Amino acid sequence: MLTAYEIIRKKRDGGILSSQEIDHVVREFTAGRLPEYQVSSLLMAIFFKGMTDEETFDLTRSMMATGTTVDLSDVQGCKADKHSTGGVGDKISLILAPLAAACGIKVPMVSGRGLGHTGGTIDKLESIPGFRTKLATAEYKDILRKIGVVMSAQSDDLVPADRKLYGLRDVTATVESIPLISSSIMSKKLSEGVDALVLDVKVGNGAFMKYRGDARELASKMVQVGRAYGKKVAAYLTDMNQPLGREIGNWNEVVESLRVLRGESSEGDLLTLTTTLAAEMLSLCSGESFSSSKEKIKHAIDSGAGYNKFLEMVRAQDGEIRVVEDPSKYKRPEFSYEIKAAESGFVTTMDTFKVGMASVKLGAGRLKIGDRVDPLAGITVLKKIGDKVSVGDVLAIAYSNEKERTMSAVKDIASAYSLSQEEPEKPELIKERIA
Ligand code: URA
User: Fold this and answer.
1) Active-site residue 388, yes or no?
2) Which range, of 22-26, 148-152, 224-228, 342-346, averages the lowest pLDDT?
3) Is pLDDT of 174 > 90?
4) Of 50, 84, 404, 435, which is most buried with the most CB atoms under 10 A?
């Protein structure tokens, strides 16, 4: 067996790692016997040199082997989940999970925290006072059985290797790698015990995959791995050249999700993408057509069934229902700053990575392992691509509880906008379905 040093060197020089070598690194790192500096180096070597399909499959399997697979065979019904590769303002899970559950499928959702410039569902849910995201397996299954939806953080025994690698990648600029994203997502999803899985692969300047070709490769890899494990899987390539919806942060994203669930949002990218992905989940489970599944999802919004499911889940996970029912009762951020247009024209592009990083700097995400997330920090995006603006119009509003942070993020947000006199084409929201 090669030493860790030799394994790093082999990958650095473009070699192909054997399944034993991959397994050794994953096992030893998870057990705390391999230092972070060596694993960081290996991650960086993988980032630059990539991995073959076989290496990616081996990595996924080794990661899964560090934990246990949740056995959901005693929970009746089709179990389905959705996972996004990560975006800015991507709060789809918060809306989609209760909607799908309201339509009769079981949604056992294990979500992540913010990663790099992107937000995480667990950080958002934890902005609801009292909401417990750490659940023992028995309770997790109990909530799933009774309510149809449960949203939790990765338990200690669900792919512990990913928890450690994810944290390390987050702070070592090694997130944007097809084999690392693929193995991270699929190891968790395959350990979750679901029957069906919808993958939302983001593409654009705010995604880990900047180009459609890379996003397609990532999507195909994940679909292939899922199929190899006997799951029903479909992937969508969706736009991340601007934030999704209007809110970026944590509590503000919960509030925006509540508006969609209450039927107060009758149009927009957030609603369109959520209903599409939720309908795909239903359709994978039931075999019914996509269009009739979409009708069911729309009905779950109109009837309030999805919103009620969300409330039921919040209650079951000890979240404070008072602020969910009336967000005006929530505390407010200390500082806010309006970013105004210095010129007139149409918004032509948004540097979504920069906007996401600005949100992290405001306190909505982490700059290093262990940083505390501020539930109130974030950004409201008032102007998006294609919108016409006049001098002085508010483009966005930044919020935080620290003045210095607010002011530094403001500069980044202002410079993330490009305006021109010509009306641009809006980016295509749903680019491709891969199944
Ligand atoms: N989401 C994950 O779970 N893992 C990644 O690596 C990226 C997005």
Assistant:
1) no
2) 224-228
3) yes
4) 84
Question: Residue 59 in contact with residue 73, Cβ under 8 Å?
Answer: no
Which position has the token pair 């009336």? 326
What is the atom index within ligand 1 of the atom nearest the CA of 185? 3
* Spatial separation of the C-alpha atoms in residues 203 and 241, rounded to whole Å: 7
Give the pLDDT confidence of 38-77 residue by residue, as tens digits. 999 999 999 999 999 999 999 999 999 999 989 999 999 9
Ligand 1 lined by 158 (C-beta under 6 Å): no
pLDDT classification of 331: cutoffs 50, 70, 90: very high
Closest CA to 259 of 249, 248, 247, 243: 247
The minimum-distance atom of ligand 1 relative to the CA of 112 is: 3
| Tokens 């489970």 -> residue | 285
CB atoms within 10 A of CB 78: 19
Residue 376: which pLDDT band, with cuts at 50, 70 and 90?
Answer: very high
Question: Which residues are CB-neighbours of 142 under 8 A, at least 6 positions away?
Answer: none
Domains assigned to the chain: 4-50 (1.20.970.10), 80-325 (3.40.1030.10), 333-420 (3.90.1170.30)
Residue with tokens 């966005």: 396
Give first-to-last CA distance, the chain, whole Å: 38
Q: Is the CB of 185 under 6 A from ligand 1?
A: yes
Q: Would the CB of 121 count as within 6 Å of ligand 1?
A: no
Average confidence (pLDDT) over 339-348: 97
> What pLDDT sits at residue 267?
83
- CB < 8 Å & 24+ apart, contacts of 138-142: 140/70, 140/108, 141/70, 141/72, 141/74, 141/75
Judge whether residue 394 has pLDDT over 80. Answer: yes
Pocket of ligand 1 contains residue 183 by CB under 6 Å: no
Q: Is 152's pLDDT higher than 90?
A: yes
Cα(104) to centroid(ligand 1), Å:
27
